[in-house]
């Protein structure tokens, strides 16, 4: 009867999940900060690149089409 109990299944799931989380090789605080900075710098670079193309093509459209 315990196998059909949803609370028993949930408890088993939580125990197994906790065990798996302990096996994970979590990044250090320094590595996390480093990766965060890389993502922010890359995002800003892509935003600048896309903004430049938008400005360029917008001005070309205004000049030649409109």
From TrEMBL:
GO cellular component assignments: plasma membrane
Compartment annotation: Cell membrane; Membrane
Transmembrane segments: 37-61
Gene Ontology molecular function: protein transmembrane transporter activity
Keyword match Transmembrane helix: yes
Alphabetical keyword list: Cell membrane, Membrane, Protein transport, Translocation, Transmembrane, Transmembrane helix, Transport
GO BP term, example: protein targeting
Protein's membrane topology: Single-pass membrane protein
The family this protein is said to belong to: Belongs to the SecE/SEC61-gamma family.
Quaternary structure note: Component of the Sec protein translocase complex. Heterotrimer consisting of SecY, SecE and SecG subunits. The heterotrimers can form oligomers, although 1 heterotrimer is thought to be able to translocate proteins. Interacts with the ribosome. Interacts with SecDF, and other proteins may be involved. Interacts with SecA.
HAMAP family cross-referenced by the UniProt entry: SecE
Function: Essential subunit of the Sec protein translocation channel SecYEG. Clamps together the 2 halves of SecY. May contact the channel plug during translocation.
PANTHER family to which the protein is assigned, alphabetical: PROTEIN TRANSLOCASE SUBUNIT SECE
NCBIfam families referenced in this protein's UniProt entry, alphabetically: secE_bact
Protein name as it appears in the record: Protein translocase subunit SecE
Organism: Candidatus Wildermuthbacteria bacterium RIFCSPHIGHO2_01_FULL_49_22b
Organismal lineage: Bacteria, Candidatus Wildermuthiibacteriota
